[in-house]
Design brief:
Strand order of the largest sheet: 1-5-4-3-2
Distance between the termini: 55 Å
Radius of gyration: 19 Å
Length: 147
């Protein structure tokens, strides 16, 4: 068995690993940066390759900093709503899409999916519209919507 001091250091180390994303997020975020609000989906390996996951993280970080992305990384999605866009992430065998909406105080992630055709499926569009309505209703405070 471990001596007490080594055991204690091991626990502290694993607690630090558990909080790594929290700590990284808190330390790297500047006060002006917008947080990501995830309504659905996640970016992890697998199914994303490590390269695609890193690219998605980099592009999302650019959005948090207020940098406006354009083609080929992002394109507007007015069919879903104003300030809605689609990130394009090319992976080894698939093209990932991240649909997001830009608010004054946050980046709302509406959906993450692999796109197999040139058109965004109607079901995805409808679900994204519904998530925007739900988010807007939930963030309404004191008669003022912050979106």
């Amino acid at each position: 068995m471990f001596p007490a001091r080594i055991w204690w250091k091991t626990i502290v180390f694993f607690e630090a690993l558990d909080n790594m994303s929290y700590l990284t997020y808190k330390i790297i975020m500047r006060p002006k940066d917008k947080p990501l609000v995830w309504m659905r989906g996640e970016i992890k390996t697998p199914p994303f390759s490590q390269k695609a996951r890193l690219e998605a993280g980099y592009l999302l970080r650019q959005l948090q900093k207020g940098i406006k992305l354009s083609l080929p990384q992002s394109r507007p999605m007015p069919l879903i709503g104003t300030r809605c866009h689609e990130l394009r992430i090319n992976d080894e065998n698939v093209i990932w899409r991240i649909i997001y909406r830009i608010y004054s105080d946050a980046i709302l992630i509406l959906e993450v999916f692999d796109k197999k055709t040139n058109r965004t499926p109607k079901g995805i569009i409808d679900v994204c519209k519904e998530r925007i309505k739900r988010y807007d209703a939930d963030t309404w405070e004191g008669g003022k919507n912050y979106g």
